Amino acid sequence: SNVAKAAHRNSLGPLQSQFITKNNTRVISQRGGLAVLPCSVTMTTPATVSWFRRKDYQLLTVGLSTYSSDDRFLVEHTRHLGNWALRIKNARKEDEGLYECQISTHPPQSIFMELRIVEAAAEILGLSNMHIDEGSTLRLECKLKRATESPLYVFWYLEDRMVNYDQEDGVSVWNNKLNSSILTVRNVTARHGGNYTCAPANARQASVYVHVLK
């Protein structure tokens, strides 16, 4: 009967806590970047949130305290959102795997996050050998593949010399937020020929050789 069902529900008591974050969420971060594993909860009774690394059952954090000797691990807590995200600075390939966010209810409740680390790489669009006429404008576009965050910087080199700030030599660099960088050289001369390298932070660099034709 409905009365019996209601009595059974009441005997279970109120739900002590509830995860807002979906279980088995996959997080993809780039090597050298910041990995953020979400864990948002709504609590109706006081409880502590802890993070574990499953592959070695390492206790990483309890509440706001970090228990790991690795100072790359830190909890990001936003109280009004019930957020207890685990932040991993300077992410490494060996950080990949399952992580457990656990609430100290009775019995404990957990959800799992899967972290995958990818290698970001630069790619200069076009041919690896370019030919350009003297006096014309050189334009090289460098795109970042598999990047999960914008790079802190993108340096351009001609041979071994960084040219980002060679404005008096006709060079300009424009970086946009969509993970691309454009190098422009106006009024190209023979000295602008050579090997150009796009070197973003935390990503594999790419090169192209420019031949200047008289």
Structural overview:
With 214 residues, the chain is mostly beta strands. It folds into two domains: 18-118, Immunoglobulin-like, CATH 2.60.40; 121-212, Sandwich (Immunoglobulin-like). The protein has one helix and 20 strands. The model is unreliable at 2-16 (pLDDT under 50). This is Ig-like domain-containing protein. InterPro entries: Ig-like_dom (IPR007110), Ig-like_dom_sf (IPR036179), Ig-like_fold (IPR013783), Ig_sub (IPR003599), Ig_sub2 (IPR003598), Ig_V-set (IPR013106), Zig-8 (IPR037448).
Question: Which terms summarize this structure?
Answer:
Ig_V-set, disordered N terminus, 5% helix, five-stranded mixed beta sheet, Immunoglobulin-like, 1 helix, 214 residues, single chain
CATH class designation of the largest domain = Mainly Beta
Q: What's the story with the biggest beta sheet?
A: 6 strands, mixed
Strand order of the largest sheet: 2-11-10-5-6-7
Element string (H = helix, E = strand) = HEEEEEEEEEEEEEEEEEEEE
Q: Number of helical segments?
A: 1
CATH architectural label of the largest domain: Sandwich
Shape: elongated
Total domain units: 2
- Output mean pLDDT: 90
- The number of E-state strands comes to 20
First-to-last CA distance: 94 Å
Residue share in helices?
Answer: under 10%
**CATH level-four homologous superfamily name of the largest domain:** Immunoglobulins
Contiguous low-pLDDT stretches (5 residues minimum) are: 2-16
Secondary structural class: mainly beta
Classify the beta-strand content into a percent band: over 45%
CATH topology of the largest domain: Immunoglobulin-like
Radius of gyration over all CA atoms, rounded: 26 Å
